[in-house]
Specification:
Rossmann fold, Arc Repressor Mutant, subunit A, 2 domains, two-stranded antiparallel sheet
């Protein structure tokens, strides 16, 4: 049992640490004022009959009523920072460590700052804020210098970046947005209202929180922690008027197996479920499904694949983006329509094979379908089938259904099936964006 003296000493150390954070983030060591904010989405106040009714004004009846002019004309489309890719809402960007996700988001930030199209999609010009708890300011400065050189930016463009790119270095500090209180409840910290106070009305378009493991509540809290972290991100997004993105790592198994889906990020499924956009960056590798343009680019290095697994308020892009990594800057690899059509046709062929065999009482696992006799593979090679299966699972055309326990034998625990309602992957035109 902890002795009183140990408790007092621990509390004093904790208070000193919080004072350091408050001094750095709030400009004051008065932690009590950090949570004194008038945002209606403020932390849930103490419960009980004596709780002041004013603290619950976000539950007011008038806030729940629909506007009288609702049906006069269609509400405007949901705002996007990057049209069709990045809505003004919270989300995730996941990748294995060392893949280049932070450098890619820095490259993306330059496009937003300068108003340049990003991967062929229009952007809303403005400022970008990085809250970095992993790479310190010196690392960011060096990367930005190299990026400006690689992109051959003019003096005026570099001046604009100096004004619009904001880097908040919190390395070595406990700047979590969510933590547990003395009663073990997950609550938002004073960091959230402090960011709102200092960065609202600053023309911020995007906030990158890097990484989630250092700025969230920690992975021991599972889905509850993920949900509370995204709630804090929603509060930042609504109050500042910007997209908020957590830069997140993937689990070891995901990195080793090459899993491509919206739940590739480490931790609870609520991370992806509660996000409004989920991107994943991987090495394209030498898969047979890679377009020939990507295979050719692999000669000079390791091309990257950027999957946009989820975008709310519009249909997500049909195909992944491929990029060459030049160390400082990136370049998009142009993939021909013919290549995309060939991949889609081969996937259709595999889906027809699986459907026909299922009707005949034959079900196939991922490995089993590759080992089919040549005459039954409908002209598809084994390597090609392996690549197409991976693509089908990534795009939602195929799913893996678990077998009943009595039918599981060895490693055969699931079978491939054609998704009954595959998610729509056609890119939506700008005038089709739905709220």
């Amino acid at each position: 049992m902890m002795r009183d003296s140990e408790f007092v000493t621990g509390a004093a150390r904790g208070g000193a640490a919080l004072d350091e954070i408050a001094q750095r983030l709030y400009g004051s060591s008065d932690r009590a004022t950090a949570n004194d904010h008038d945002d209606p989405r403020a932390d849930v106040p103490p419960q009980g009959d004596d709780a002041p009714a004013g603290r619950y004004r976000f539950l007011d009846y008038d806030r729940a009523k629909l506007p009288a002019t609702l049906f006069a004309q269609r509400p405007p489309p949901y705002p996007f920072v990057i049209e069709g890719l990045l809505p003004e809402a919270p989300g995730l960007f996941v990748a294995a460590g060392g893949t280049g996700k932070t450098r890619l988001t820095l490259w993306e930030a330059v496009h937003i700052i300068l108003g340049r199209d990003f991967l062929g999609h229009k952007v809303r010009e403005g400022r970008v804020l990085f809250v970095t708890a992993e790479d310190d300011r010196e690392v960011f400065d060096a990367r930005l210098y190299d990026l400006a050189e690689a992109m051959e930016l003019t003096a005026n463009q570099r001046k604009l970046i100096l004004d619009r790119l904001l880097v908040l270095d919190v390395t070595g500090l406990d700047a979590r947005l969510v933590e547990t209180d003395m009663a073990h409840n997950l609550v938002q910290t004073g960091v959230v209202p402090a960011l709102i106070e200092r960065y609202r009305n600053r023309d911020i378009r995007l906030i990158n929180l890097d990484p989630v493991s250092n700025l969230g509540p920690g992975e021991i809290h599972g889905n509850d922690g993920a949900s509370r972290f995204l709630t804090a991100c929603w509060r930042l997004s609504k109050s500042i008027g910007c997209a908020v993105r957590g830069i997140h790592h993937v689990a070891k198994a995901v990195a080793r197996d090459g899993t491509l889906d919206q739940h590739a990020g480490r931790g609870g499924s609520a991370f992806a479920d509660n996000s409004r956009h989920v991107w994943q960056l991987t090495y394209a590798g030498q898969q047979a499904s890679n377009p020939p343009e990507v295979v050719a680019a692999a000669i000079d290095g390791a091309p990257l694949r950027l999957d946009v697994h989820k975008v709310s308020y519009c249909r997500r892009p049909e195909q992944p983006f491929y990029l060459t990594d030049h160390g400082a800057a990136f370049q998009q690899i142009a993939v021909s329509t013919e290549t995309v059509d060939t991949l889609a046709r081969d996937l259709d062929t595999l889906c027809a094979l699986l459907t026909a065999d299922r009707l005949a009482g034959r079900r196939h696992s991922r490995r089993n379908v590759e080992e089919l006799p040549a005459e039954r593979r409908r002209g598809l090679g084994r390597d090609r089938i392996r690549a197409i299966v991976a693509e089908g699972l990534a795009t939602g055309r195929l799913i893996e259904e678990p077998l009943p326990k009595e039918e599981q034998v060895g490693a055969r625990k699931s079978v491939l099936s054609v998704a009954p309602n595959p998610r729509n992957t056609r890119a939506m035109a700008p005038d089709e964006v739905q709220q």
